[in-house]
Design a protein that fits this description.
The protein is of the alpha+beta class. It is 30% helix and 25% strand. The protein has 13 helices and 22 strands.
Length: 410
């Protein structure tokens, strides 16, 4: 007696969500094919975390949800079904030990993103998942029996189709936004795409000697008449823009508002009165020195010229001649250093894409389309994004896992 033929699942996109979906699919019930336009899997994983891959954030589900910028409620089910703790267990148990660092960021012990990719690929192979490399999907069609996927080299059919194509950020890795086109073909609404976790452009000229500078433990504030947000942490500099954890996180909060005013608190641990007392102590120690010297006791050397140029500080004034008015102005400048907002870098320079498939049209427990049966969307293609620190990769893994388990019992 012949066995009943297995149903076929095709997953488009071999990034974090696609690989994790396939690694957790029930291949006793389904034949699973993973399609990707690249010659290798996980190209965006490879460059994530500066090549170290910040795979998740070691936090409880409630804290995790608080770090999701767009549509956190949509993730409740997925994060509780597959949490950061589950991610850590998965990789530790499958030959890729992890470690937790500052800010609960989780990395492979080896500090090599390739180990994350190898682990996921190995699990897919063990799960008998077939992979079709260098297959660019040209068109996706719904048929009476399922789906037809037309590629540059072959044409495939599937009973169930999973879209895991990622966003539009880092298009060189294969994230070209095709998933949004496929979604539109099934009448899904696409929320406007914006840069997220990207550098913030500023008007002030940033000198080359600042490119390697990190301002540690500072506060970056963005505000307008209706919006106010301050983030504490580290700041870095690029030509014409600011970056680093606090700038990247803030970019995700301001990518849909206009007329933003930016400022830095360079001494957030001190209020103005305490900072003024510190200045007075330094002046008493070296009254014959000038203001330029005083700044060396307060700021990194590479930042001082930038500070002076953008605050009109009289650096040649001797400290014993520094008036109370000038001293208080210096305090104000240190606590409220203005930067002129010029917009965000374009979407290709963002770590993730904000916007995407409208989650109101997706079942949050299964990731199945509410408009088309047996069609699923997982990972960055959805209108979900979070702060830097491993939150976005965990979203990819959790939505992928929820989808795989839902399909296995469907």
């Amino acid at each position: 007696m012949n066995k009943t033929a297995k149903q076929k699942i095709i997953c488009i996109g071999a990034g974090a969500s696609g690989l994790f979906f396939c690694a957790n699919s029930d291949t006793d019930i389904y034949d699973v094919l993973l399609i990707d336009s690249n010659a290798k899997v996980g190209r965006k994983i490879y460059i994530s975390g500066k090549g170290r891959c910040n795979i998740t954030n070691n936090s409880e589900p409630k804290e995790f949800i608080n770090n999701i910028v767009r549509n956190p409620k949509f993730l409740y089910s997925a994060i509780n079904r597959f949490s950061p703790a589950d991610t850590i267990d998965f990789f530790n148990e499958n030959g890729c030990p992890l470690k937790t660092e500052r800010g609960n960021r989780v990395f492979p012990v080896s500090d090599k993103s390739s180990d994350i990719i190898d682990c996921l690929l190995r699990k897919c192979r063990q799960n008998n998942v077939k992979i079709a490399f260098e297959e660019t999907v040209k068109e996706v069609k719904k048929t009476d029996d399922g789906f037809t996927i037309i590629c540059n080299n072959h044409e495939y059919t599937a009973d169930k189709l999973v879209i895991a194509t990622g966003g539009k950020s880092y298009s060189s890795t294969g994230s070209t936004g095709d998933g949004y086109r496929f979604a539109r073909e099934f009448d899904h609404k696409i929320i406007e795409l914006k840069s997220a976790l990207c550098p913030i452009r500023v008007k002030e000229k940033i000198s080359r000697d600042m490119y390697d500078l990190t301002l540690r433990n500072v506060s970056l504030k963005a505000e307008n008449d209706t919006f106010h947000k301050t983030i504490f942490g580290d700041l870095e500099f690029l030509p014409n823009s600011i970056t680093g954890p606090i700038a990247l996180s803030l970019s995700s909060l301001i990518n849909r508002i206009d007329d933003v005013r930016l400022s830095l608190d360079l001494k957030p641990a001190l209020d103005e009165e305490t900072l003024d007392k510190r200045l007075l102590r330094e002046i008493e120690k070296q009254p014959q020195k000038d203001v330029a010297y005083l700044l060396t006791t307060l700021l990194p050397k590479a930042f001082i010229n930038f500070f002076m140029e953008n605050t009109d500080t009289d650096t040649k004034c001797l400290l014993n001649s520094l008036t109370r008015e000038k001293r208080q102005k210096l305090v104000k400048d240190l606590k409220d250093f203005k930067l002129t907002y010029m917009g965000l870098e374009d979407i290709d320079k963002g770590i993730v894409t904000s916007g995407g498939v409208d989650v109101n049209e997706i079942d949050p427990k299964s990731m199945e389309s509410k408009l088309c049966k047996n069609l699923y969307f997982i990972g960055e293609v959805l209108d979900v994004d979070g702060f830097t620190g491993g939150f976005n990769l965990q979203c990819a893994l959790s939505t992928a896992y929820s989808c795989a388990k839902a399909i296995s019992i469907s």
